[in-house]
Amino acid sequence: MDTIVSFVLYFYPTIERLYPNKGVDNMGEGNVYFIRHKQDDDFSKGEINRLKEKNKIAIFFDNKPLSEVTIGNTEIHEKYFSDKKAVTVKYRSALNCLLKIAKDGGMVVAEYNDESEVLIGQVKPGTSLEASGKIEVTLQLTKTKTLKYSDYPVALAVRPPYGTICKPLAPFFQTIIPMIYNNAESSININRSLLHPKMLEQMCVEYLRIKGVNDQILKYCILRPGKSLAIIDIAGISRSGKPIYAQVKADKIKPEAHACFIKFASKNFKDALNVIFSESDSTLKKHSEITYVNVDDVFNYFKTNDEEMIRRMIGFPKLATTKPFPLRNERSLSSKGKQMT
Fold first, then answer.
1. Which of 49, 200, 254, 260 is the most exposed, having the fewest neighbouring CB atoms within 10 Å of its CB?
2. SS3 80
3. Exposed, middle or buried by CB within 10 Å (0-12, 13-18, 19+), for 215?
4. What pLDDT is stored for residue 54 in this prediction?
5. What is the pLDDT of residue 254?
6. pLDDT of res. 1
7. What are the average pLDDT values for consecutive 10-residue runs of the chain, which has 341 residues?
8. Which pLDDT does position 225 carry in this prediction?
């Protein structure tokens, strides 16, 4: 059976380490995986729900038992996977990821049937893979908790859009998820590296709308931030009717991107406000008709004046008053049934 598996990696600035928390389980910090389970012609919604009820995650193969695709259920059987006709590289990647979780342990965010919630659970180091029949390869989660997308909408926005199983590098997954799981929100070290690029773009929109640049206050956007054009991330109109165009970078803007923005802006230097939001760069040859704003200044402005907005953006809708994130009621793990990704 063909299962599409692709590893989706997000590359962001290095995540700053958080202050240590006594009594907090740090198993997941920096070692968080995401897996989705979706129905198809062979596996029903009910079968996936049974997988969820047993607190398990699973991937699937081409009608071959686990003993034929692994060596001792602990490592990839290279000889088997060298035959491209027998199985695709994507199958190999998925199994390799599951084997790594089983060996090293970690935290898993598991989605089932595109529901409005996910399970977050732990995998202890040295956990064995299980095979049910000749297709299902499962791994047991422990200490599972339920996270609702309505409580943490950022989780829905930044989850990997494609593939079955991967280890996202997004700060929300590798840093924020363990803090939520451990009810340790009050210990978070708020810093810009925790912002998803989408959130940084939105923060710059709010900066233009609230504080403004060069006495121009944004009235409204005419394009969706970050989605419509490759050269600009923000396009809007100021209260005085002046067009505003901006590029947003989480780090220093590269010479190629800088040159492209200058070329774009050169057609309306006199009629529009052109802004580049990026990290400060003393080596950058600045253009006199472009306004450069340090993204750290933008972040610090809101950290001083509206930290609640930043907390909501990085995934903490509440402050230290957040109620404990409870463990799920453990269900019987003895029942058997088909499981599906």
1. 254
2. helix
3. exposed
4. 92
5. 95
6. 34
7. 32 31 49 89 80 89 74 80 66 88 95 90 92 73 92 83 86 87 81 88 96 97 77 95 96 95 88 96 94 98 93 70 57 40 38
8. 76
> Residue 291: beta bridge partners?
275
**Residue 171 main-chain phi, psi, to 5 deg:** -55, -35
258: three-class secondary structure by DSSP: helix
Backbone angles phi, psi at 246, to 5 degrees: -145, 145
CB 18 within 8 A of CB 171: no
Instruction: Provide CB contacts within 8 A for 214, sequence distance 6+.
Output: 273, 291
Token digits for 219? 């009235």
**Start and end residues for every CATH 3.40.1350 domain found in the chain:** 197-314
Residues 88/62, Cβ–Cβ less than 8 Å: no
pTM of the predicted model, to two decimals? 0.73
Q: What is the pLDDT of residue 215?
A: 96
pLDDT at 337: 38
The answer to whether 36 touches 164, Cβ cutoff 8 Å, is: yes
Give the relative orientation of helices 307-314 and 295-305 as an angle to the nearest 10 degrees: 110
DSSP line for 97-109: HHHHHHHH-EEEE
DSSP string, 262-314: HHHHTTSTTTSEEEEEE---TTS---TTSEEEEHHHHHHHHHHH-HHHHHHHH
Region for residue 79 given its phi and psi (left: phi exceeds 0; alpha: psi -120 to 50; beta: otherwise): alpha
Quick one: pLDDT at residue 81?
77
Q: Quick one: DSSP state of residue 10?
A: -
| pLDDT for residue 25 | 53
Which letter does DSSP use for residue 176 in this model?
I
Considering only the top CATH level, what class is 197-314?
A: alpha beta
